[in-house]
Amino acid sequence: MLSHAHIWRALDTLAERLGLSASALARRAGLDATTFNRSKREAPDGRPRWPSTESIAKVLAATGTSLDDFMALMDGSGRRAIPLIGFAQAGEGGFFDDAGFPVGGAWDEIAFPNVGDEHAYALEIAGDSMLPLYRDGDVVVVSPAAPIRRGDRVVVKTREGEVLAKELKRQTARTVELRSLNPEHPDRMLQDGEIAWIARVLWASQ
Amino acid sequence: MLSHAHIWRALDTLAERLGLSASALARRAGLDATTFNRSKREAPDGRPRWPSTESIAKVLAATGTSLDDFMALMDGSGRRAIPLIGFAQAGEGGFFDDAGFPVGGAWDEIAFPNVGDEHAYALEIAGDSMLPLYRDGDVVVVSPAAPIRRGDRVVVKTREGEVLAKELKRQTARTVELRSLNPEHPDRMLQDGEIAWIARVLWASQ
DNA sequence: TGATGAATAGGAATTATACCCTATTCCCGC
DNA sequence: GCGGGAATAGGGTATAATTCCTATTCATCA
């Protein structure tokens, strides 16, 4: 919801709406004219660079823009449908990129507006292997960007294409220990190299 | 607008709603625990210091908070928040009307918009009696207006003032059978006259 | 009461962003 | 085509935010 791309798009859109260039907008806000240069939006090594909160505050003050207006420029609406697929399908190829972000057009959608991660997606549970926590038909909302700590419920995809929902038991430099949600299933230990990505479960439908 | 005080108040309020300290919120967002220290909010000479846009984005992503909700925390309007109380408090009088809708001003709030039911509310789980499904500190979002079917997780309030979270096992004209979430606890059967209201659990934080 | 862990204050080191400067491109009017 | 102004790319410097570290306070628990 608040991403590098969103912030810069909102600044560009605001400037355009006021009939200003990026440099003119910066100047009007009392900032250096090159602050919003496109060449300053990424570091030389490709890492994203963000405008500071204070710079944004100055722009809003200088242009008489409310925070609500600015937010509306980011992606139009606050409520958003997030992509949804079945848990079994997630193991097939073509639904995720290397970072575990959803890609491709084969996703269904579910209305769930309250997610801070624009790459969040939803998985529909199939089968009874994750009882008693998740039941057949439940929907879990997953954030690939959220940091993960011990005790979090997580979705793990292995390099072999297997998709697991587990609780993070222990994480070391080389290994990840996962506790099964269903106590009848054994716990699982994965080496770092075996894991394609791990994403945290934020919410679960009941 | 977007002021130094607003930003820090929003971060503090967000942390408070999630039951976190300033340092715990920073840690959850993958930042250094001292990033949001009060001692870091002003420079030694008194000039204001702002959290970076990137840090705010990380907080939103890590907590599943939308920008909408975050802004609501700034101006204090809370327009998209839903009411929240602790599970234990729900048994006391004064929080619900006869239909099971939340009433009164003693509710806290949590950012979780758009569940589709304007009377929806949230309960914070306390204790381990509902393990393994709900853990201490989890938040469940409850809809008193949602229709209830067999297998749904429900919150039931008895006329005696007891509040239970159970799974609906069977419902007949005169009785309601409830399965305990913790298998070590016995199931429960209630007569129609014993029940004040039943509400369905829609979502549970993970 | 003592031990433990979380939270916080405060200082030094690191890293990121804003500023300043220059070169180049683009647009527009002449 | 030419000149002037704005816009932008890119690099060095200054400044601000984050991280890292330590000391202290506070709450909790045995």
From TrEMBL, chains A, B:
InterPro entries membership: Cro/C1-type_HTH (IPR001387), Lambda_DNA-bd_dom_sf (IPR010982), LexA-like (IPR039418), LexA/Signal_pep-like_sf (IPR036286), Peptidase_S24_S26A/B/C (IPR015927)
PROSITE patterns reported in the protein's UniProt record: PUA
Keyword RNA-binding listed: no
Keyword Transcription regulation set for record: yes
Record GO terms (molecular function): DNA binding
Residue ranges constituting the Peptidase S24/S26A/S26B/S26C domain according to the UniProt record: 83-201
Keyword terms: DNA-binding, Transcription, Transcription regulation
Family matches, as PANTHER family: FELS-1 PROPHAGE TRANSCRIPTIONAL REGULATOR (PTHR40661:SF3), PTHR40661
Protein known as: Phage repressor protein C with HTH and peptisase S24 domain
Lineage of source species: Bacteria, Pseudomonadati, Pseudomonadota, Alphaproteobacteria, Hyphomicrobiales
